[in-house]
Amino acid sequence: MLNKMKRLFRTENFSYFIRYFAVFTLIFGLMTMIIFQLMRLTMYQSSDENFKEFLEEPSLIVNFALARGISSNAEVILEQEEKPADTKNDINPDDAFKPDQSFKPSKLRLNTNYHVILYDKNGNIVNNLDTMSGLASIELDTENLTKIVEKTVTTAFDDDETYRMMTVDISQEASIQSTGVSVQYATVLFNTTQIRDSLSRYEATVLLVMVSFWLISIIASFYLARVSVRPLLISFQKQKDFVENASHELRTPLAVLQNRLESLFRKPEATILESSEKIASSLEEVRNMRLLTTNLMNLARRDDGLKAEIVPIPPSFFNTILENYMIMAEENNRHLKVQNQINQTIYTDKTLLKQVMTILFDNALKYTEDGGHIQLQLDIRERQLVFSVADDGLGISDADKKKIFDRFYRVDKARTRQKGGFGLGLSLAKQILDTLNGSITVKNNLPKGSIFEIRLPVKIK
Prior knowledge:
The chain is an alpha+beta fold. The chain contains 11 helices and 14 strands. It has 3 domains: 45-191, no CATH class; 235-302, Helix Hairpins (Orthogonal Bundle), CATH 1.10.287; 307-460, Histidine kinase-like ATPase, C-terminal domain (Heat Shock Protein 90, 2-Layer Sandwich), CATH 3.30.565. 48% of the residues lie in helices and 17% in strands. The strands form 4 sheets. It has a 5-stranded mixed sheet with strand order 8-10-11-13-12, with helices on one face.
């Protein structure tokens, strides 16, 4: 793996690797931050909602303080207005520690993690607190009234406890008197120590998972870089092979032309009749170059994405083509058998279809010996035009069947060269069929030879 990474830095894959790795890093980084933020928000959502309830109804703080107990000698008065002095002693002792029955119903869900500290106007604590909790060390903070703040308190056991707390002015809600002392402020606290510990464990787990996937993304980036570059390398290699093969194919006829023309200069007094053989050979090479350049242009046009022109094709179109094939087969001393089952109009590209059919028939002529047999079949099956060409030539090996549709590939280069082939016909046929959403297959024709079959989706009238 390390050696592969070293080779990666020295290849064109590296830029793709960096891009993918940067994207993965950004994604996992953002996901981690979002998850952390959501966890923190949801952890304190319930307590913060309770703080809002306290803020809207401060009397709830007093009732909660009464429920938790204030002091053993406190005399509690829950009144909005001061009573006359002569009614002060009429307080029912049984109601001293009862919460106010006039407050509105709320959705508060309080537990032992909540605490209340009551202060007088001088900031002194007036209610009893757990001496072990360390809450008595919290001083009144009037600068952050009605704001939720966090504070860490050290207990008697030297443990740190974290609280979220909010201070509220409750002087207008109630008064709690003990030896003439009245309540001015109340601080509500929620112990978040356990939640923070759990949150820390969750964050560590999430961080571990994200880092693990981030490390996996290195391998994923390496793989994606190779996959992304592979089509480019294949395309580049095909282009390189195309140029090399085209140059090779053009070099031979150009060399022949050069030799023939130079030989004519060496015999300036020779007549045309005496030089006819050399002139004929030169013309043959010119024809070959013209055919080659025409095929190359056709291939280039197919690469640019030639659009098919769908037109109606009557049955007579195929009859004419097959009659021409019969004449060509007779001239080349081949026995041609034709089975044409098309008797209705179809819709496809006429020019491209004719070109594909001609390429396959021309190949059958080239690779069939003198006196050999060729069989053509045309039919409509399942709304597809089926055209097959069978010959009894040399045949094609299984290894060659995988390559015959590549440009300039020839099974027998010497034989094909003699027949005037360039290895472009089947490649062109394959590209035409791709344009028309068709397919082409090749199989053995027993006992010898090959069968090429094309299937082309067509519209039928």
